[in-house]
Specification:
about 350 residues; alpha+beta; Pdz3 Domain; 10 helices; signal; Peptidase_S1_PA_chymotrypsin
Length: about 350
């Protein structure tokens, strides 16, 4: 495959590029610059032919929120945990949209393991040998063409935890800080708003940790980062309800993003720090394109794309870090963060 692939790239690079009409256009507007990216992506179609069959897409209703990698033909799928807090369906390679069961969540790696009621799925094939600096990295989607192509740009390294903390997106009633944590208002487009929290809800617990008052709630939430999902239990008119809330940045989506100049090429992943080990590549991905397999020139998965971290920086978790975690995730050693939901829970 490698020889055929290189021959295709050579052929592309030698295609005639001149035309009388085109020569009158500014260099950057000539037609070849519109098509070269597509031509290069098409050259990688044979590389991802098998891997894309093991790639699924997570949806919130009809909106894509993440990709996933099939690890077992009986319906086991790995993905980026902080991207699927609001997902409800998985699109399989054959086009079926099916619900999923959240099985496990490794907080340190931001990995989620889910299972769908489907069999004979195509699992990705892994490669645990670490790619060299400059090696090709190809991101698969569900279409025949790759979502993105890049190279390993920084050797394997750890990513430290940032100082940013997550917020619910609420204002609290101004009472004694140790009496109660009662919501005064919910900010639009916040995690709290999307989850269904309302004014006058009293927050009772966060991830089963009891909340004694306003100060305790603030201190507890500050232990989590933007992108983390927490279970918020509230008292609403005498009835206890639980909500899954994905935390956002303390300065809001807009201010948090313009504060990062590297983000000029598009939105960054909320969770893009505190990883034991990553390989950095220069593929430009959107957050919803993370969670799926990143493959080498032989079509084998060298890891899972785990974050869009900068203008030309994406992180993948290496395969040799992921594979030893799978059995523990299956066994329930790392329980999922999402509480069982019902119509009563969601306030519908």
């Amino acid at each position: 495959m490698t020889q055929r692939f290189l021959a295709t790239l050579i052929l592309i690079s030698s295609l005639p590029l001149s035309a009388p009409a085109e020569e009158r256009l500014p260099e950057r507007l000539r037609e070849r610059f519109w098509t070269q990216g597509e031509q290069v992506r098409n050259a990688f179609v044979p590389v991802i032919r098998n891997a894309r069959r093991g790639t699924v897409e997570f949806l919130k209703e009809t909106e894509p929120v993440a990709l996933g990698a099939v690890i077992d033909g009986d319906g086991w799928i790995l993905t980026k945990a902080s991207q699927i807090g609001e997902a409800d369906l998985v699109t399989l390679q054959d086009g079926r949209r099916v619900p999923f069961e959240y099985i496990g969540h490794d907080v340190k790696l931001d990995l989620a393991l889910v299972r769908v009621n489907a069999s004979r799925l195509t699992a990705v094939e892994w490669e645990t040998e670490e790619p060299k600096l400059g090696a090709w990295v190809v991101t698969t989607g569900q279409k025949p063409e790759p979502l993105g192509i890049g190279v390993v740009s920084v050797p394997r390294r750890s990513i430290e935890k940032s100082s940013s903390y997550g917020v619910l997106g609420i204002a609290l009633v101004d009472v004694s800080p140790d009496v109660a944590a009662i919501i005064e208002s919910v900010f639009p487009n916040s995690g709290a708003s999307r989850a269904g929290l309302e004014a006058n809800d009293e927050v009772l617990s966060i991830n089963s940790s009891q909340i004694a008052g306003r100060r305790d709630l603030i201190r507890t939430i500050h232990q989590y980062r933007p992108g983390d999902t927490v279970i918020v239990e509230v008292d609403r008119d005498g009835e206890k309800k639980s909500f899954s809330v994905t935390l956002t940045h303390p300065f809001g989506d807009f201010l948090s993003r313009i504060a990062f100049q590297q983000q000029l090429g598009g939105p960054l992943s909320f969770r893009r720090d505190d990883f034991e080990a990553v390989l950095q590549h220069d593929t430009v991905l959107r957050p919803e394109q993370c969670g799926g397999p990143a493959v080498n020139i032989d079509g084998k998965a060298i890891g899972i794309n785990i974050a869009r971290a900068g203008r030309t920086a994406s992180y993948l978790l290496p395969a040799d870090l992921i594979l030893p975690k799978i059995e523990a995730l299956k066994s329930g050693e790392f329980p999922p963060p999402i509480a069982p939901q019902s119509d009563a829970d969601t306030g519908e």
